Amino acid sequence: MSGLRMTGAAHTTLERALLEGAATERCAIGYAHHDSASATWVLETAESLPDDSYDRRDRVAATLKSHVLIEVANHARASGMSPIFFHTHPDAVGAPHFSAIDDRGEAEIRDYLERRAPAAAPLAVVMGPQGARARRLGYGEPVDLWTVGADVRLLGNDHGAASDEARNDRQIRALGREGQQLISRLKILVVGAGGTGSASLQQLAYLGASDVTVIDPDRVEESNLNRLIGAAPADIGLPKVAVARRMVEGINPTARVEAIVGDIVDQEFAERIGGFDFVFLCTDSHASRAIVCQAAYQFLVPVVDMGVSITVADGAVTHITGRVQMLAPGLPCLTCTGALDSEQVRREMLTPEQRAADPYVVGGRVPQPAVVSVNSSMASLAVTMFLGAVTAVPVRARYQRYDGLQGVVRLMAARSRTGCIACSGDGALAKGGNWPLPARPKGRRHG
């Protein structure tokens, strides 16, 4: 999701402030955390400007007073953030386009900021009643503009090259051409290549996902063969991600697949999460889920988390349960829904030496029951939830629980906790790289 990301709530607030009842152009100033490696901007704040901020304002142009630009440059230089200049074209039909007047005005602002705040990477955004576009301020280079929440939307710019319409014809009839194109251009990360991860990857490949990264530290064992989609007895000893890559490429030969043998809790991998467009969280590790959960809100990268549990007592199955939950701004995080065990997170982040010395860690992990059909059911719910978030298909569920014994999927309701460290504005929300991600530092690998 390279480009400018903002929460859906921030976008709605700006639309109301700048466009409702507008008789003239209006402006707002925002500040974003910029990462040059992934070419992303995470918008943290934005406010519309008061009426006395303008030298001139009418239906086709708005010129800001010099003191506004001085304040913007000073704040950008002091904070290390990149200013985002929003303005409106109130009469635009469809997604608005930048005008020649915009070109001239941006060139002057660009020259000023390059002198006063040279480290900043400012953007310009034009908003209209039916869309918006973004670009590098003063350079004309288009930048994707995303809103992230329960729905993920790409505003204004093209959704990508046409996908294989013959192959995907039946999907296009359901998802729409734009939805299919968006799926093919999204940069997707799958964390965990085991039971739910391999099932999710298989479905994503059939859907036409063309840029997929999968990370998992483990190798195929004989006990995995009952549920690891795409694996065969000859694969025992291979990295799970190698099997996953082979499967995806076999289904979609044009897909780009990066297979990483590693643990997402390690800093070198965790710090890459912000460069992805969508994440599928398919592990049973509380530490990995805690880190990816926070990253979802910190970098505005939507995540679908899934989990499965089969309980056996006295040789009989007593419960088959599953959970699928989307993590995105405006939705509660795993901490808020009680899905994380903080003590388990602590234990899983220990090195082998620390674990051996910790009096609270007793014994090793006991293998849990696992069945391919239950894993696949949760993966299907997760992928369908993803489709509801990124396409026009009206799938509204963002938090579901599954009772396998009763054959029931329930839509769950939950609220975010005030002041939550992960999903609130008092915590990591939209803080980008300016907020610590609790990953395992380099040199402290889990063994």
UniProtKB/TrEMBL annotation:
> Cellular component terms, GO, for this chain's entry?
cytoplasm
Keyword line = Nucleotidyltransferase, Transferase
InterPro entries with a match to the protein in the record: ThiF/MoeB/HesA, ThiF_NAD_FAD-bd, Ubiquitin-activating_enz
Q: Which residues form the THIF-type NAD/FAD binding fold domain?
A: 169-417
Question: One Pfam match, by short name?
Answer: ThiF
Q: What GO molecular functions are on record for this protein?
A: nucleotidyltransferase activity; thiosulfate-cyanide sulfurtransferase activity; ubiquitin-like modifier activating enzyme activity
Q: Where are the transmembrane segments?
A: none
Q: What's this protein's name?
A: Molybdopterin or thiamine biosynthesis adenylyltransferase
Species source reads: Neomesorhizobium albiziae
